[in-house]
Write a structure and sequence with these properties.
elongated, Arc Repressor Mutant, subunit A, five-stranded antiparallel beta sheet, 8 strands, 6 helices, alpha+beta, single chain, about 15% strand
């Protein structure tokens, strides 16, 4: 919002820019809320009770805070004669400034949208390219090398055959170099000799 064709108020940044001097002033959010509340009720009286309720949430010290906030806003807007923010004794305040929209703020927002959109688009393209490249390198058949799945399968088969060979190929010290018999073989032989 542009006040008196001079002060650009940006509530999203809590900034007031004096377009005559180029001075940028950051203010606390409560002051921006107060200025916006008064500007919304342009040329209408806004009671102190409503302001304290809206801006200070009925905080007991809100009345004193309101006096200080009005003083800061007047200095910020160069309102030495108290014509922009008029004090209405025992009532409240009335805002008499002219309100317009600042074209520079309106121009700045679409550029942000364009830059953010372009950045998101480029990130999506990069993610797609990396995903495609990763997928292609995993599926590539290289002579002498196995794929990931083939390596796992070969490892499992190798592990199983090694454990089977260990069971079958263990040598019994009593048999002097003969392969050790498994428990199943011993039981079968004992059952066969018992039947005879």
């Amino acid at each position: 919002m542009l006040i008196n064709d001079r002060f650009n108020v940006d509530p999203s940044r809590n900034e007031v820019v004096d377009q005559q001097t180029g001075k940028v002033t950051r203010v606390e959010p409560r002051l921006i809320k107060l200025l916006c509340l008064l500007a919304e009720h342009e040329e209408k009286a806004v009671s102190r009770e409503i302001i304290v309720k809206e801006i200070w949430n009925d905080y007991p010290g809100g009345d004193e805070g309101l006096n200080q906030a009005i003083s800061v806003l007047r200095k910020l807007l160069g309102d030495d004669k108290k014509k922009i923010i008029e004090t209405l004794p025992k009532t409240g305040y009335c805002f008499h400034g002219t309100i317009g929209s600042d074209q520079t703020v309106l121009k700045r927002k679409p550029f942000k949208v364009i830059y953010v959109s372009a950045a998101v688009f480029l990130l999506l393209i990069a993610a797609f390219v990396l995903g495609y490249y990763h997928h292609r390198t995993n599926d590539r058949v290289v002579p002498g090398k196995l794929s990931h799945e083939e390596s796992i399968k070969a490892f499992k088969m190798d592990s199983k055959s090694n454990s089977d060979n260990r069971e079958k190929g263990k040598l019994d010290s009593k048999d002097s170099g003969k392969p050790r018999r498994t428990n199943d073989q011993k039981i079968a032989e004992e059952a066969g000799s018992w039947r005879k």
